[in-house]
Amino acid sequence: MFIFRGKKNNRSLKISVIILFFALLQGCASAPAGLYHDVEGGSGPAQTADYKPSLSYQMLIAGVRLSGYKENYAGDAQTVITRAQNFNSRVRQSPPDNFYRRFIVTETEINGRPCFLIIPRQNTITDKAVVFLYGGGFMLGIDFYHWNAIERIISELSVPVFVPLYPIYPETNPLTLISFIEEVFVQIYAAYPDTRIIGLGDSSGSCLLVNYCHYLTEINAERFPDRLILVSPAQVMGIDEVTLNEMKAIGKYDAGISADILKNLPLIFNMNDDNENWFNTPLYGDFSLFPPVYVFIGTHDLFYPLIPQFVERVRQQGKPIELYTGIGMMHDWPYMPIASESKFALDTIIEIIRRD
Q1: What angle do CA 53, 56, 61 make, to 5 degrees?
Q2: What string of DSSP letters covers 282-303?
Q3: Does 291 sit behind a cis peptide bond, omega within 30 degrees of 0 on the bond before it?
């Protein structure tokens, strides 16, 4: 989530020093506490509420704040659009160079958008495959911390990972997105017809996965993804005033995303009550045909107040869902560098993918 591209300046130099120093400490970090796992409706994360984030996590937060990443979502709608476009112009929208050395990278296109199928060079395991949908508020492209997570998944599991660069502003609308994601799954099913397909998304990528499954429910589709792993799932519409106020209060602590997104995204994407309801409110609705769901959220994540309600809705409809709550953790924390809590959370995600 740090910005190191373009001309170097004093701020980026300071962040680089922080990352270098704490990267050396990361290998010595023990597995942290503060990750509350709720399988069947426990009492919530209160039992670990006094958990103090590790020094490595505190330095991560310092680096994120120095980077100014949160500013990408702050301000009025036009300011957010301009910042997002400037950010995307600096960010490489293809796998890092080392991917082409370590893995087999095949680039294809869906509806004119690049997609990357990435597999190990040898000993590929094809009983599972991952469709990776990155977050960014449907405005920002894929970033380095997403590629880091993808690299670890492939390296540790030897499974194929399909990374579609789905449409973002100004190209996107609900029908365009659903049409694109539907074709993504058609292609992955065709390439791996007997493989269990895991959908892994963060933030708006999680939103897109859930919306796709709502769409499949609506059309009474025969095949769904076999598992959904949702990191910091997002929603900005249909929120009651009490929950909205809770989100704004937590937004002050979230280093990764501004509460301004709650008013800006509906304006930017012309979202209103007349739009497709399942797209505007993915955490509501009919979950009766959904596959097993695994949710990762932090208590300092802007969207945290939405998640206990979402989990309860899914359970009331008789579907399995597991909740992993990081005490004091920010938006998208499992993908962040440096922090021992992030490494532990990503280890857990990898273990969920590994399960039979």
Answers
A1: 75
A2: TTSS--TT---EEEEEETTSTT
A3: no
- Nearest in space to 49 (alpha carbons), one of 325, 332, 334: 325
pLDDT digits (tens, 9 = 90+) for 82-132: 999 999 999 889 999 999 999 999 999 999 999 999 999 999 999 999 999
Measure the CA–CA gap between 182 and 189, rounded to whole angstroms.
11
Which DSSP string do the residues of 57-120 spell out, in sequence order?
HHHHHHHHHHHTGGGGG-SSHHHHHHHHHHHHHHS--S--HHHHHHEEEEEEEETTEEEEEEEE
Tokens 């209160």, located at residue: 46
16, burial (CB in 10 Å: exposed 0-12, middle 13-18, buried 19+) = middle
Query: 126: which 2 tokens?
Result: 């094809």
The model's pTM is 0.90
Name the nearest CA neighbour of 150 among 140, 165, 136, 160. 160
Per the CB < 8 A criterion, the answer to whether 334 and 150 are in contact is: no
Terminal-to-terminal C-alpha distance of the chain: 32
Query: Which two three-digit tokens encode residue 194?
Result: 């007997």
- Strands (E) in the chain, as ranges, are 35-38, 103-110, 113-120, 128-133, 161-164, 196-202, 227-231, 293-298, 321-326
* Domains in the chain: ranges and CATH: 30-354 (3.40.50.1820)
Residue-level length of the chain: 356
Tell me if 254 sits within 8 A of 331, measured CB to CB: yes
- The mean pLDDT value for 321-327 works out to 96
Using alpha carbons, select from 226, 216, 221, 160 the residue that is nearest to residue 196.
226
